[in-house]
Amino acid sequence: MTYIPPSQRGLTPQHAGRFPGFDTLEQVKYWDHATAGVVLERLAVATQLAFFTAAEVAVARPLLDLLLGQDGEPRVPVLELIDTRLARGETDGWHYDDLPEDGDAWRQTLAWLEEDAQTRHFRGFSHLVAAEQAELVQQVQDLSKSGDKWHGWNATHVWSLWTRYACTAFYSHPWAWNEMGFGGPAYPRGYLNIGVNAREKWEVPDHGEGAAR
Amino acid sequence: MRITHRRPLDYGDVRARNESAWLLPNDGSRTNHGLRRDMRHYAEGDEVDLVVVGAGAGGAVLTQRLARQGWKIVCLDAGPFWDPDQDWVSDERGAHVLYWTEPRSIGGSDPVPLGSNNSGRGVGGSMVHFAGYAPRLHPSDFSVFTDDSVGADWPISYDDLRPFYEAIEEELPVAGEVWPWGDPHRYPHSPHPVSGNGEIFLRGATKLGLRAAVGPVAIPNGRFGNRNHCIYRGFCLQGCKVNAKASPLITHIPDALAHGAEVRADSHVSRVLVDERSNSVTGVSYFKNGVEHRQRAKAVVVSGYSIETPRLLLLSGNSSHPDGLGNDHDKLGRYLMVQGAPQTAGRFAEEVRMYKAPPPEVSTEEFYETDPSKPYKRGWSIQNVSPLPITWAEHVAAQGHWGPALRERMRDYVHWATLGALCEFLPRAENRVTLADETDRHGLPVAHFAYSQGDNDRKLVEAARKSMEDLLHAAGAEEVMTIERYAHLVGGARMAARAEEGVVDTEHRVFGVNNLYIDDGSVFPTQGSANPALTIMALSARLATLLPEHAK
After folding, report:
1. Considering Cα of B50, then B54, then B56, then B58, what sign does the dihedral take?
2. Is B2 contained in some domain?
3. How confident is the prediction for chain B on average, in pLDDT?
4. Given CB 3.0 to 4.6 Å as the disulfide criterion, which of A121, A198, B44, B254 pairs with A193?
């Protein structure tokens, strides 16, 4: 079996979750190499950013922490995963015609968030407390819900850009799968027990208030 | 109900006309490397009988059929010649390479996301990442304008396609229950077992007295050549590493290679070449490894799907056709359609774990036809869908959740079942592809796709959402949530009886240019509420019987 240090077993972001002890990574030995390669790469800590500038990181890191509720360690390295993607120019294959391509759209929206912080609080975004940052982020979502513009851009399209990249990065990470009870890759093993309330022997039932909610 | 008799699937008969499934290896690997290594290669100066642009549902079937008849064919594809073992992963994020991710811009009042949603690249096309549903159109789909005064009529009828539907259903092959809707029919393979998601659908349908059926799914249920049995791993949309789910990469390309076709991958066609004096095509130019090449051909078939096909013909204009080939009447790129595809999920106290088993499971076409008592025309179908975590996050985020609320909702994943509707949106002239100012890596203008819904479309989405909520509530859902989205692309170069109304004639010939054809989903005048893959393949199989007549 692949070695997992005791402190890393069954890890979830911020130790949150409802599936105690469940660890997708204990299944690595049952995955094909091509799949294991792309998934395990997400565990390697990026040592150097290639896309975001230092000033952009100061805004992007707290923004992404807020969007995904990552208020402590261990954190899924969302900023690093997005940085890699933007550096490679790996888009979703489209962009809204009223926004530039994704990389430029990220740079511009981070600059405007910083501008909002300066205008409202006379401090940089990174120097605000989380509640103040959240208020500025909430304002963009509010504009998106009312179909309004933010700094002249369609706020719905900006919100879509941020949440799409953030969620794609976060929910590609095995720790996020542990948190939600998802088994991850399933080749060549597949599933034997399908159906309502059916589980594989290595899956863990929901221990949350789930069933009673 | 009268069900057409269907004889049991005769493997010898299928193998005699398409040996693809038997040409795959049976040693646990998924690619016949020998067949690719020994593939015939044509020189650029050779004038081949046919160049096919795009090795997807349309281009691959045509290539296979005509290679069998001895045609010299080069099939060019912009993307890779996939090897499922090496190139595909059992992972949602890692499947990004399967999508067309060259730049494109989207607009209109209801912009339609492309990429993972509906656009493939590489040999096998979008079917590499399609869910696997393979329903037929209904006979009524071919006379929508006559019957309901909306949309358009097809200049061909259901009966023209029926024998080709039957042939392709055997070659994929399709598994499902007896199909009671449209032209009632049986499938060559019996239905697959259902997972929790399908159970919920059937439970709700039984409660409501609504007819539902398992299938139709392009995944063999049993042995079929050297294709392996489905392992119910749930990653159909990420490319089937098992060789269970059908795509042209395994259902038609192997047989095409065995009969002398050349599939030239990583070759992005930039222009269809036309001799202006004779107004006939002479071949194509294409980029491979940064170098521009040409391939001479007596005829060219464009099978690039609803965005790239119009784009290529717009890029191929000349002094006789300054606005693009097939665009003398300003119809090219227009009437592009997507299906309204709201997805409604229901929360159950039990664990559903919808990520298990292929996403395509149960369908109902009870709402497919026009109901005269309703304030809208045409209808929708309902099918199971099973979003994996990243896509599921889109559902949750679409409800407005972010931060801790998003995370908490996501942790509830195993309790949710999901249904998706396919609403028949009507064709509109203003929904179209044009060339944008932006260029791709080859310096070619990229496609801009404008899309706006009409009133009938909005009413259908609303009614479809309600029908899915009812189904889930009947099944015992404690709570439901809906995300509005779109599925599939068809139209953009529609088939019509006259040049003034469309881009190709009833035999796929582009109006106004000799020996130029279109063979893909872009020729659909309307779309019904069916997933388009099977119909694209059936049209292509039909075209393969017409081209030899034209060549005489």
Report:
1. negative
2. no
3. 96
4. A198
